[in-house]
Task: structure prediction
Amino acid sequence: MPYFDYNATTPLTAAAREAWLGAQTDAWQNASSPHRAGARVGLRLQAAREKIGLVMDCRADRVVFTGGATEAAHGIMQHLSEQLPADAKIAVNSTEHPCVLGAVGSYFESEQVVRLPVETSGRIEMSAVEAALGEGVKAVVVMAANNETGVLQPWEEIAELCRHAGATFVCDASQWLGKLPAGGLAAADWVFGAAHKFGGPKGVGFLLRPAGDNGFSLRRGGGQESGQRGGTEDFPGIAAMVAALLEAEQSKVLHESDRLRTREAFEREIQRRLPDTRVVGAAAERLWNTIALVMPHGENHRWVARLDKCQLQVSTGSACASGKDAPSHVLAAMRVTGEEARRVIRISAGWETTPQEWQELADALVVVAPSTKPASAVISI
Amino acid sequence: MPYFDYNATTPLTAAAREAWLGAQTDAWQNASSPHRAGARVGLRLQAAREKIGLVMDCRADRVVFTGGATEAAHGIMQHLSEQLPADAKIAVNSTEHPCVLGAVGSYFESEQVVRLPVETSGRIEMSAVEAALGEGVKAVVVMAANNETGVLQPWEEIAELCRHAGATFVCDASQWLGKLPAGGLAAADWVFGAAHKFGGPKGVGFLLRPAGDNGFSLRRGGGQESGQRGGTEDFPGIAAMVAALLEAEQSKVLHESDRLRTREAFEREIQRRLPDTRVVGAAAERLWNTIALVMPHGENHRWVARLDKCQLQVSTGSACASGKDAPSHVLAAMRVTGEEARRVIRISAGWETTPQEWQELADALVVVAPSTKPASAVISI
Result:
């Protein structure tokens, strides 16, 4: 059953499953317990932290294990709101994930937030970043890769600009990690991701905090994570996450260009066979796995349902928003009209996706499309 | 290797492991995805919520899935701090878990917090609860069972008093759930627990919110959990938690009185064989699995280490605080002196613990104890 909804969540990899089961057998004890079995879990937890440090090319003490990206976003925004002056301004990319926008909105007043516009390609307007920094924003929030469109943001440049301006750079790497090399991301002050987006289990993730920021505390409690996150560490989940990330970094990401070619071939084919389809963000560099496709006609929910009947799983956009009727803020920021946005399906592949499955998807899209384009612009398919 | 540190964390039960693996195979998709596979996960998530509602004897819509007890405590305290008047007072049991005290301290000013004393038995002073309610505290925070001593609190009475006074009652049931019947706990307005304390995986838990409280949001994000907790739901973790809790409720808790007799027999035996040992909270009703034992002499860390060499795992107190030198606030609240507190070991059994293992522990305690009591009160053993 070809699954093209990897950006919503991924199946657990074999390596992650094995690591989890192994840890549930021999490292399930509480890392804070005073006996040797507990201490051994503590050591393995530290080894896991060092592995994340290696992958991210940063010191292990920047790594804080979390319950996922939403938790990280909230913890970081709460911390920044407490650390920054009460009237500090914060510049936020318009196409961030709802969990990041939700976190910003939870801890900053709307008059503190400068919305950074994107080009129609989905790429952030760098002049707006520069202008915001020139006006003294204290923090800049820009994701590495967009979940709906796959559009990549120039995070290296932004990290450099922020460093020069003395502003804090927060980078949501949830959709980047495991798909593209993680090296360099640690140039951002704060980086975070979630294991279930790269083959690890749900309910676990990690963040990087600035090297000098020792006052960070996601929540107080039993002093776990050097006081940075209360709550018994989920070592089996962490072990599974590390296994998935290491495998992705050490072998999978090397195949990125092959996968990119497969995606591009699919895009050419579908535009040839369904001429009025359009790829959102076609002018930008995008993740090798993601296509936001404007269908020629018919509402996206109908396309999703028809493909679903053909055993092909795609989405209408970000999973968490897909049940809602509001048009995507990501597409709106890219000047996709509301009418067009209702025709967008999100296709997101995984490392396991084969060229044959892409072919199956192309064929199915042609099959489920109405044979002739109806006269009316919006019609049930 | 007899493990007597169940209050720190429990091994995963076979039922929980099976549920987790099953869900990772056939229900790993995102519950918010618009295809049928996602919808099926959404339905199973709702079924899991209803099962928790059955166990807790409350409406399923009171159940919010969380990442654990620390997260729940913080979410609840943040919510109460926003809902209650700015100068509202909140009464908090002195022997709460550090994560609850940390959460209270994160969201309430110290002058808002009325500390509720306990008797030397560890049982809360009900007159203090009544007095606090009489003085108009808006919320009362008392755990169901203590993690260090196993002392049970009269939560049914407190729930009744709070209901009459119109105050909110928050009850940490982390150590109660899975050990004693959960029925009735839903009389508290807010209840929470963590799966890894009752045989489920780490990183997952649940809370009950008041039936009418629709404004609760642990964190904003993608609108998951009816907007009450952003972040992709960890359905495999939730399925494993439900499996562990159902098994505990449907069969294990029926054996409580047997287990209590085994614990009592151990206490009698150890006090006979090591006459100057003392059970903390002996005058109170306690969990069938927990003993905080004041050893006749020698520091607790030495006892733990010596037992550890005999392949017996006990703790010095709550796992998260065990690496720290500060004396336990729980023991201090029970008027255990600092000198005595340094001699306390925590023994916490599980459903898997056999009478033979209890016997092994008693024998080992006698073996590792110095043969004669030294003249000095504090001496290395």
About this structure: Chain A has two domains: 14-250, 256-368. Chain A touches chain B through 69 residues (CB under 8 Å). Residues 36-56 of chain A form the longest helix (21 residues).
